[in-house]
Amino acid sequence: MKSKNESFRRPVDAEARSAARMLVRTARYGALALNDVENDTPMVARAGLATDTNGMPVIPVSSLSGHFDSMVRNGRAALLIGQPGKGDPLSHGRLALSGVVRRAEGADHERLRRRYLARHPQAKIYIDFKDFSLWRFEISSASFIAGFGSAYVLERADLETKCVDWEEWHSMEAGAVEHMNEDHRDATCLYATKLCGGTDGDWQITGLDPDGIDMALGDDHRRYAYDEPLKRAEELRPTLVKLVSRARKQSEIS
User: Fold this and answer.
1) pTM (2 d.p.)
2) Taking Cα atoms as reference points, which of 14, 46, 45, 49 lies closest to residue 221?
3) Cα(first)–Cα(last) distance of the chain, in Å?
């Protein structure tokens, strides 16, 4: 016999996974909840967000902040994301993530720094201060509310991006982003306007991962999710070429 809470949960399907992943990938901030290690009480703070290539949220934190010690000594955390719109805020989708936060070091730090600054260029004025560090939120589970009557319980596997050659992907991503932004801005604009509904302008790619393309025009951020996830880094270039053709055909239709 199902409990009262279970009776309201829907089976997790591809549509729910896709919507939840889009929330994680496009969120620019969230509410980070921790347990204060000094007095064992709950605490919450606003956190700027980007994502690593595997879809885990990335958070910059100052050692001068009140929650830094809790992150270092405990690490257990929750993160609420979702942007309310018009009308009842509870009618809009949100995602409550549970997991642990881990400090990034070495090559991981450099990658997360680059990806975070691509999403939040204003952070360049403080991101390299000695008191700042970057943390990755390692998701263990999540509660996804798509709207009234649409509740799902997700696992890490429902939100995590997979790749069989992460080392190769990480070695080429920065160069691929730079190449697209310097030499193929017309293609990026087509992705953003024809495939994602953005307005015309100088769109920039902010990140490439096996699940999709992140783009920005000022504070307008868009994401295109591929029809099927890429398995290897070598699949990226032909995929981007195909998407240009798709976008041009869409332009002709409209």
Assistant:
1) 0.92
2) 49
3) 52
> Which residues touch 222 (CB under 8 Å, ≥6 apart)?
26, 192, 196, 197, 198, 203, 214, 215, 216
115 vs 108: CA distance, rounded Å: 11
Q: What is the mean pLDDT of residues 27-51?
A: 91
User: From CA 173, how far away is CA 167, in angstroms rounded?
Assistant: 10
Q: How far is CA 211 from CA 77, 139, 250, in A?
A: 25, 17, 21
Section 187-213 average pLDDT? 97
Whether the Cβ atoms of residue 56 and residue 134 lie closer than 8 Å to each other: no
- Count the Cβ atoms, other than its own, within 10 Å of residue 231: 12
For the four alpha carbons of 16, 17, 20 and 25, in that order, the dihedral sign comes to negative
Which residues have C-beta within 8 Å of that of residue 55, sequence separation ≥ 6?
21, 24, 25, 159, 160, 161, 209, 211
Name the packing angle between helices 106-119 and 166-183 (round to 10°): 30
Q: Whose CA is closest to 29, among 224, 221, 225? A: 221
**Contact (CB, 8 A) for 142 and 160:** no
What amino acid occupies position 24?
Answer: V
